[in-house]
Amino acid sequence: MMLQDYLTHAARFDARRPAYDDGGVEVTYGEAAARIRRAAGALARQGLQPGAHVAVLAENGPFFLEAYFACAVAGLVAAPLNTRLSAGEIAFMLEDGACQAVLHDAQTADLVAAAGGPRPISEALWRSFRAEGEAYAGPDARDPAALAHLCYTGGTTGRPKGVMLSHGNVAASTMNKLVLGKFQRDDVWLHAAPMFHQADSWATFAFTALGARHVFLPRFNAEAAIRLIADARVTSFQLVPTMIVLMLEAAGATPPDLSSLRRILYGSAPMPVATLERAEAVFGPVFQHIYGLTEAAGTVAAAPMPEIPVEVAGERRKSCGQPIIGVDIRIADRQGLALAPGVVGHIQARGANVMTGYWNRPEESQAAFVDGWLDTGDLGRMDEDGFLFIVDRAKDMIITGGENVYSAEVENVLYRHPDILEAAVIGLADERWGEAVTAAVVRRPGRTLAESDVIAHCRAALSGYKTPKRVHFLEALPKSGAGKILKPELRKALVRLDA
Description:
A hairpin with a 2-residue loop joins strand 19 (about 370) and strand 20 (about 375-380). By secondary structure, the protein is an alpha/beta fold. It has a five-stranded mixed beta sheet with strand order 11-12-13-14-15. It is about 30% helix and about 25% strand. Helix 1 (about 5-15) runs antiparallel to helix 2 (about 30-45) and helix 9 (about 220-230) crosses helix 10 (about 240-250). The chain folds into three domains: about 5-220, 3-Layer(aba) Sandwich (Rossmann fold); about 290-395, Luciferase, Domain 3 (Luciferase, domain 3); about 395-499, ANL, C-terminal domain (GMP Synthetase, Chain A, domain 3).
């Protein structure tokens, strides 16, 4: 399966169905395919040969969807970049990724210019590409092992790494998402998470394959997302828990009609049960926890559908589910020895969606695998039925007084406090304990909350060594472009506050 096949299928069988709205003009799949093929032809005439790397730097919108597919049609490798990065970070990725061109919109033009990107192609120029000229007539590559996407990691442990995902990798992830979400032809997908991120990029291909409708939120805004769900009768989207919390606040006591929603996928971090229950009260029983990473083209495990309450009751509400079709997951020690059910260890996965490696990083590529299994860098456990429980990032585990503390467990307790909007827990150096459990807390608007209140709340539910020894109140937590809390940045901020 090649990614351009999804477009070909939609153009053949869903040519008259609406694909998306572009500036107030409804575009059918037949029209979208024609404009994309013309744009692909223009890229080839620009001298971009099959296999060339092309960066995409843009906010969510039709341009991004068309760029993904045009690159696939022309045999180019799309390198989607985070719009929230600095010019220096962008410049590094463009050079490291050997990008020969940068497709960008008006909002990122200054960033591209500051980064010194090679051969910038603006959205305005793109519109001329797709409006006229001949459709792509070059070779139609049919090798699923061919590189399709080069997706850079956040670089939290050093230099950002380019994750190499083949057509087969992305296609496997796409088809798995269609199955696990039971999506349908009449679905309306809201691109609310950034399209440069694995949380949303898969939906470009999956919902095109269905002939379903795409709706775009250029940049995440909780109030705008709520309005768009109601106005466009959105049925599905995917976000991280921090974004869902913001949407809960934006919905208020009397939210608009959200009854069109069928499925909300969430991942990148566990959602505290208390938050999940609040969200279900507003959006309905439509939440499905998924677990994955860029190196696996998005997803390796998913919870059962929320309409199967027996399987996800009790403790299993905290689980991110079972391995998806075509993916094996095991819990192992550092040497790759599989561990028994219930024992915490490294989460490792293998399957058709797992990356081919890191771009120009042979040693790091080799280190990422243990006997053919991708080590996710996360710690977890599995029960006897294969339900996976994320315990912590391996690098985020806190060792205090010789005891292991998993930050997710403490965060889950913090989120039960009615006055806490957001929370994150890290370990900071401490002369007595080695590391001190430290909480960063964002209060709900208009609420007052003291450090002693937070500590007392945690002490009532946790062992003494797990209870935060320090609490810092912040206006906001540092987040990535996809809304994930950046603990390395948070650590730097708290160290400064402790100084």
